Amino acid sequence: MQSRDSVDQSHPLFGGALSAVLPTSAKDTSELREIPDNQEVFAHEHTDQSLIVELVEYQGQVADQDASRYHFEDIAGSNKALEPGAFEVTSVVSLSKSELSLSDCSSAWMLTGTQCVSKFNEEARNTVTLHLGLFRLPQFSTDVLITFNDPQRISPDSSSAASAETHTEPWTVQDFQRLLQTLTLHNPGLFG
């Protein structure tokens, strides 16, 4: 049997301008639906987990140590999860640049939190753990956000309820950390 490391392959992102090692069974959702040009979205083949690599405008007014929380709250707003008790940040840690392939960043952060979100504007709300990786690239006026959505509790009324029953080899935080550590910039022209 092959070890996990021997099958790790770097996956091109944004036409090869970036790359990273994605977890096994990551399916590119752009083959299923329209994805904005500033995003790469991957879904787990069997669970309701997803990964989003997103290029967003650098928020110069936000201090580095607060930037991941800023983006987390922005995502909570998009998820209509801003009411009290609907979102919570459980940890924010600085990532050591010596452990990252993307050494061009001014700083890197990993935030973990939860949000109660509904899918496709449904009434049913699911409790999702969000692991958010943030790479700050002020020289390119860009923040690179990587979000790992890991549903913890799926409402029986949610459209995701069927897939929640088949948790075969879900992605782990270690898979997400490997993605963060292997994110590599090949073409700075990506940032305009």
TrEMBL record:
InterPro entries per record: Mog1, Mog1/PsbP_a/b/a-sand
Family: Belongs to the MOG1 family.
Keyword Cell membrane (UniProt): no
GO BP terms in the entry: heart contraction; protein import into nucleus; regulation of membrane depolarization
Any coiled-coil regions, as ranges: none
Gene Ontology, cellular component aspect: nucleus
Keyword line: Guanine-nucleotide releasing factor, Protein transport, Transport
Source organism (scientific name): Cottoperca gobio
GO molecular function, one term: guanyl-nucleotide exchange factor activity
Gene: rangrf
Name this polypeptide is given: Ran guanine nucleotide release factor
